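Below is a filled-in request sheet from our internal design queue. Each sheet records the structural input a requester submitted and the sequence that came back. We keep these sheets so that new team members can see what a complete request looks like end to end.

REQUESTER: design group, bay 2
PRIORITY: normal
MODE: inverse folding
CHAIN LENGTH: 168
BACKBONE (tokenized):
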């Protein structure tokens, strides 16, 4: 068993005392309200093109029908005229309300997903050759930068389940 050098022990003690001295700058006061979005599960939805952001609002509606509180936060762009803004006009939770369980984040850039703490990703892919090619390109970019990621694919505009499977 190795013992710590006296300098290491002194350094550890002074560091601990320094933390106590400055803790009032970063520790919450007793009774202070916690951040309401802390327990919200952020789910990035990677889109091939901006016009597909309607998928986020359809998913939000489906989740609400299954009794999940959900919200869409369109951080890259404003909803376009094609969008179905079910929650776009919904107010953010007040201090007395709870934040939603799930927050869907429609994004068009694989790099944007790296700024969000997550381990799951939804990917909306058009049922077309160009759409699938771009989706594979996005997946390759993500694989280079992030190793442990579960990706769920949503095939858009498939006329049948068979067509969706074929493009998948």
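RETURNED SEQUENCE:
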């Amino acid at each position: 068993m190795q013992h710590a050098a006296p300098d290491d022990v002194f350094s550890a003690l002074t560091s601990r005392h320094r933390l106590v001295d400055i803790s009032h700058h970063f520790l919450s006061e007793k009774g202070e309200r916690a951040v309401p979005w802390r327990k919200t599960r952020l789910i990035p939805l990677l889109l091939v093109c901006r016009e597909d952001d309607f998928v986020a609002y359809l998913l939000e509606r489906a989740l609400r029908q299954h009794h999940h509180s959900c919200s869409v936060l369109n951080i890259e762009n404003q909803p376009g005229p094609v969008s179905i803004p079910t929650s776009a006009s919904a107010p953010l939770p007040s201090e007395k309300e709870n934040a939603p369980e799930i927050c869907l984040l429609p994004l068009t850039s694989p790099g944007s997903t790296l700024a969000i703490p997550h381990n799951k990703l939804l990917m909306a892919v058009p049922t077309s050759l160009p759409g699938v090619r771009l989706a594979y390109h996005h997946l390759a970019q993500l694989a280079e930068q992030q190793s442990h990621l579960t990706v769920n694919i949503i095939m858009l505009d498939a006329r049948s389940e068979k067509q969706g499977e074929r493009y998948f």
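SHEET NOTES:
- The longest helix spans residues 6-22.
- The chain has one domain: 41-167.
FILED BY: M.R.
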